[in-house]
């Protein structure tokens, strides 16, 4: 048996003490933190199991929950646990943080979206970092709420919301809101053409678009205006005169024209020496 010399023993040095990780216990694959855990430190932990346990802890405060959400690599299990932490989800910032986090599961974000306020929904739909399906869900909720919100909120949405929400306001009964939607930076030609093709509720829209300094010069918009019964008759001939012959023929074949509009288009073709 080999014994170490006393000189060798004196040369040994004990390793410095390291802080022990929190002692946790697992119940049915669920990590539970001890009551004396330092949550303020643990919200910055790198372990998915620890972060999930922190998210589920009833002692978690709003500030600590927001610090937790700031983890861009926060696991979906932690976000799901946080969504079930009832008292915390009453805080607007926490709800919003859960919805916009890139790792939040769809089955968590979808029901949470329904509890957001009008302008929070608008923000979700505009944030570049939010997943497309989450944006779409926020837009759907917002569009369904339009009939019940004030005209002041609707005009703000018309000016600043996503194009899809602004498009839903193109047929608003208040002209100032419809006009604001036309100037929305996210508005596109496709949204306007779709709105004009519906006809119902376009009594204000069609005349406004037919004289609009931007949209009235787009050929597809002109074609949609020619098919809309609310386009002023005096504008029909003017718009048709600016359209290519093939588009005029397409409008005539659509069969959605009033007799007056049809005669006006035929007159334009005749003037150009073209048969319908």
Strand adjacency order, main sheet: 1-2
Radius of gyration: 31 Å
Low-confidence stretches: 1-15
Largest sheet: 2 strands, antiparallel
- The amount of helix comes to 55-70%
Class by alpha and beta content? mainly alpha
* Number of domains as seen in the coordinates: 3
How many DSSP H or I helices? 18
The SSE order reads HEEHHHHHHHHHHHHHHHHH
Q: What is the straight-line distance between the termini?
A: 112 Å
Strands, count: 2
Molecular shape: elongated
Task: Give the overall pLDDT as a whole number.
Answer: 88
Strand content: under 5%
Walkthrough of the structure:
It is a single chain. The chain is mainly α and 276 residues long. The chain has 3 domains: 74 residues, no CATH class; 72 residues, no CATH class; 88 residues. β1 and β2 form a beta hairpin. α10 runs parallel beside α12.
Write a short abstract of this structure:
With 276 residues, the protein is an all-alpha fold. The protein contains 18 helices and 2 strands. It has 3 domains: 25-98, no CATH class; 116-187, no CATH class; 189-276.
List keywords for this structure.
276 residues, mainly alpha, 3 domains
How is this fold's topology laid out?
Blueprint: H1 6-11, E1 25-27, E2 30-32, H2 39-42, H3 48-56, H4 62-69, H5 76-83, H6 92-100, H7 106-113, H8 118-126, H9 132-145, H10 151-160, H11 163-168, H12 175-182, H13 189-198, H14 205-210, H15 219-226, H16 233-241, H17 245-254, H18 259-271
Antiparallel strand pairs: 1-2
Helix pairs in contact: 3-5, 4-6, 6-7, 7-9, 8-9, 10-12, 13-15, 15-17, 16-18
């Amino acid at each position: 048996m080999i014994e170490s010399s006393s000189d060798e023993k004196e040369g040994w040095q004990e390793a410095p003490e390291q802080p022990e990780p929190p002692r946790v216990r697992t119940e049915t694959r669920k990590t539970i933190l001890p009551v004396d855990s330092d949550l303020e430190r643990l919200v910055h932990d790198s372990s998915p199991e620890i972060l999930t346990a922190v998210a589920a802890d009833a002692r978690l405060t709003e500030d600590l929950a927001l610090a937790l959400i700031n983890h861009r690599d926060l696991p979906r299990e932690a976000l799901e646990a946080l969504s079930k932490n009832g008292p915390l989800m009453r805080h607007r910032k926490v709800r919003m943080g859960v919805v916009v986090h890139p790792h939040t599961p769809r089955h968590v974000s979808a029901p949470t979206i329904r509890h957001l306020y009008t302008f929070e929904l608008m923000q979700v739909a505009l944030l570049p970092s939010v997943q497309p399906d989450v944006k779409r869900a926020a837009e759907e909720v917002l569009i369904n709420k339009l009939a019940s919100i004030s005209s002041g909120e609707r005009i703000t949405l018309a000016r600043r919301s996503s194009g899809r929400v602004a498009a839903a306001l193109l047929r608003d009964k208040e002209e100032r809101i419809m006009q604001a939607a036309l100037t929305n930076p996210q508005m596109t030609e496709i949204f306007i053409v779709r709105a004009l093709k519906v006809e119902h509720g376009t009594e204000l829209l069609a005349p406004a678009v037919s004289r609009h300094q931007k949209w009235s010069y787009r050929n597809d918009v002109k074609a949609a205006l020619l098919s809309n019964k609310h386009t002023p008759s005096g504008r029909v001939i003017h718009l048709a005169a600016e359209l290519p012959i093939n588009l005029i023929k397409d409008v005539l074949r659509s069969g959605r024209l009033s007799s007056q509009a049809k005669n006006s288009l035929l007159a334009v073709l005749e003037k150009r020496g073209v048969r319908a």
